[in-house]
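Entry 14. Structure prediction run on the chain below.
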Amino acid sequence: MPDWLIWMILAVALGIAEAFTLTFVLGLVAVAALVAALLGAIGLPVAVQIIGFAATATAGLVLVRPIIQRQMTRGPDARSGAAALVGRSAVVLREVDGDQGLIKLSGEEWSARCIDEDLVIPVGTHVDVMEIDGATAVVYPREALP
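Output returned:
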């Protein structure tokens, strides 16, 4: 059996195993086996095939795998919808207390209530949106009130 065929069988087996584990280790080693199969197919000696396999596997595990892992564990880049409004600043249009009020948030008027039920936020005060509860922004004053 030719050397390149053995490397190809190894690459396929590692690729199938990667599909079940999703660790990105076996897939990178499968790519290294494909490189070794290519080297064997063009007629290079087994020693060169092994060196090519080792170099490609090492490069994949050291250079590529950390990038893949970082991309997989990273959260979404941009929030959308109501979640995008959390953390934004707004201005009070109608006095906000623990039950009701009105703010201008991202160019729109939103019903609002204060996260601190005992606090009353006067008109004109800048507030931060702490959360969105249905169609109501839950806010807290940006600066201490007098």
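The helical segments are 3-21, 25-41, 46-73.
Filed with the rest of this week's runs.
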